[in-house]
Amino acid sequence: MRNIWLLVLPALFWSQLNYAQQERIKGAVIENYGPTYAVPQPEFATNLDETYKVVFDVSNAPEDPSAVNKWIETVARFLNMHAEAGKKLETMDVVLVLHGNASYGLLQDSFYEEKFGVSNPNIELFKALDTAGVDLILCGQTAKHRNLTKERRIAEVTLSLSAMTALIQLQNNNYTLINF
């Protein structure tokens, strides 16, 4: 019975090597966030010419306030993977609508630290998204409820009446909703 392990263990090891994850690629658009995997020849072809009008609806935040919000980082991954596939940045019209717990990520560092006791890990991500042309929209109802005044939040964000209002208007203007 012991000798069977001499056969099984190498087989298990070899099968794990065959299924090991590939190395992630740093972002072409947002270098420090949203790493992706190369998919050299997908059967479902990526349309490199049409404009993608996308609105990300994000309300979740990680339990650990010192962690970058992975749902927000998905926007960086979206940009990076499409750029890696050959899609030009100007063919991606991306909006991020924030409400609920995700909205705290928009606090300036001193106010975030006051609330959570740690520096805001999301500020550089928001700046990079803004630089890449992503519109950042904050739900006005959430802002009022959570005291996210203009003086307390980062400058890159635009305030709307509500997340619902922004999402309706954007979808009426042919933006595709990606919801987290």
Commentary on this structure:
The chain is α/β, with parallel strands linked by helices and 180 residues long. It has a single domain, classed as 3-Layer(aba) Sandwich (Hypothetical Protein Ychn, Chain: A), CATH 3.40.1260.10. 36% of the residues lie in helices and 15% in strands. It is built from six helices and five strands, in the order αβαβααβαβαβ. It has helices at residues 2-18, 70-84, 109-116, 123-131, 140-145, 163-172, and strands spanning 52-58, 92-98, 135-139, 157-160, 176-179. It has a five-stranded parallel beta sheet, with helices on both faces. The longest helix has 17 residues, at 2-18. The protein is globular and about 45 Å long. 33% of the residues are buried. Mean pLDDT is 91; it is low at 5-9.
Quickly give the structural class: alpha/beta
- How many DSSP helices? 6
Principal-axis shape equals globular
Task: Specify the CATH class.
Answer: Alpha Beta
By CATH, the topology is Hypothetical Protein Ychn, Chain: A
Annotated CATH architecture: 3-Layer(aba) Sandwich
Total DSSP E strands? 5
Rg calculated over all Cα atoms = 20 Å
Describe the main β-sheet briefly.
5 strands, parallel
Q: Give the neighbour order of strands across the main sheet.
A: 4-3-2-1-5
CATH superfamily: DsrEFH-like
Strand content: 15-25%
Low-confidence stretches: 5-9
Helix percent reads 25-40%
Mean pLDDT: 91
Distance between the termini: 50 Å
The figure for the number of domains is 1
User: What series of H and E elements makes up the topology?
Assistant: HEHEHHEHEHE
